[in-house]
Specification:
17% helix
């Protein structure tokens, strides 16, 4: 089996960094190299517990990375693009957000915060959560 992705860009391109701890030719690194950086906003890696509500179903998950407009979740099953979900961060009542699933990949579930009212609260919440992480928790 080949460890390259057809059409992958020049591996010397700085924007294509492998996941932390991933082998240079590991699956995650190859997927990332093939995807390239398509995001319009920077992402910050985190490991935050959350609860995801999908209709009447509740699943525990982890927020893997955050940006001013959304997040990537791990541990959530059964979602499809355009599904609407509610994300509840850290068990705090004031940290509930409605999001839309933008895509599902091997890396996780990619979501965008929908409500214009929620977006400033989301940015404040992630700024507080990211800056309050203990040193060395990257």
């Amino acid at each position: 089996m080949s460890d390259t992705v057809p059409g992958a860009a020049d591996p010397s391109d700085d924007r294509r960094k492998p996941l932390a701890g991933a082998a240079p030719n590991g699956s995650a690194a190859v997927i990332l190299a093939g995807l390239g950086e398509r995001r319009s906003m920077p992402r910050t890696e985190v490991q935050l517990p959350c609860t995801v509500h999908v209709g009447s179903h509740v699943q525990d998950a982890t927020v893997r990375d955050v940006s001013p407009g959304g997040a990537m979740l791990n541990g959530v099953r059964g979602l499809l693009a355009h599904d609407l979900i509610r994300i509840h961060l850290g068990g705090r009542e004031d940290l509930r957000f409605v999001a839309e699933v933008r895509g599902v990949s091997l890396l996780g579930v990619h979501v965008a915060i929908l409500s214009a009212d929620d977006q400033p609260r989301w940015r404040d919440a992630i700024r507080d959560l990211v800056t309050s992480r203990p040193a060395g928790s990257d």
